[in-house]
Amino acid sequence: MKxxxxxxxxxxxxxxxxxxxxxxxxxxxxxxxxxxxDYSSSxxxxxxxxxxxxxxxxxxxxxxxxxxxxxxxxxVDIREEFGDWVIERFTDEYLAGRTPNPCVLCNTHxxxxxxxxxxxxxxxxxxATGHYARVREEExxxxxSCGLDLNKDxxxxxWGLPQGHLARTIFPLGQYRKSEIRELxxxxxxxxIAQKPDSYEICFIPDNDYRRFLSDRVPGLEQSVxxxxxxxxxxxxxxxxxxxxFYTIGQRHGxxxxxxxxxxxxxxxxxxxxxxxxxREELLKQILxxxxxxxxxxxxxxxxxxALAKIRYKDPGAPCLVRQxxxxxxxxxxMNSRSAITPGQSVVIYEGEDVLAGGWIxxxxxxxxxxxxxxx
Length: 376
Prior knowledge:
The chain is an alpha/beta fold and 376 residues long. Helix content is 26%, strand content 28%. The longest helix is centred in the N-terminal third of the chain and has 20 residues, at 102-121. It is globular, with a radius of gyration of 22 Å. The N and C termini lie far apart (52 Å).
């Protein structure tokens, strides 16, 4: 028998197949479903049903998989842990005029800590999830890499995992394509979930309406931020907005402006409750500073080096030069301008298929320009 492993099971096809794969490979599997959020408090009554991960139906699906294949399954309530960290920071980031990435926050500060804590209690040597990613040990470093299926790769959302967490993590799906996972689900007798659709919404906002969520979460928010000015970069007021937290960098629709040409949100200023808009060219920037960084492939980036950087989850990435500004920050200089670099989002740096490092986009240094950054 291989070591005991605790598998995070949401009730979806990916985590279910991950658990069964490990079980068939000889690991002693314990399935664990985490209740992260009270859906009765977050789902609009008009929806009439729970959707998303970790609902009652999903928990029952996960338990059924364990019963069919003969391994233990638990459900744990981590709503207090989840709410304190993820929900508060999600709300605070929008109120600060930034656009947060709650999945990275959850993986880095909640999900892995919660899993490892329970793994220790249950005597598990490893934890496993259904993420499409890979991890390997090389020269005393645990290196995170893209999943084989680049259309499903989830390494972007895992950049915050420290070395100690990666050392105890197994990604059973890293070598598979999504189509193969659905075929395996059928083979394993998981017909009820084999074709279950993927979940893309934020787990605590199952209707995907973050504006409604913020309004419900912060009493009086809409009234306090409504009717602020929309200005051009030269300061000319061209309209009024409905509250700065309800806009994101690069947004075009919903501005209700008739200027004769398309404009996009380029700056959000919470102090003055002001939204700045402009033509697409004003979204083009080249240099960003990321803070609260995590170095994965190397313990330090002592010299500027070429890499590829992604500034959002579905970003294919772009060539850049990256250097470690200090112990806490990275400077990323793109070869060519990128559109809508957004404070609050993650920037993830890749060297080939390996994650070099990641951090939170804090500020943008460059002015608008289309010239390339000179390579060293």
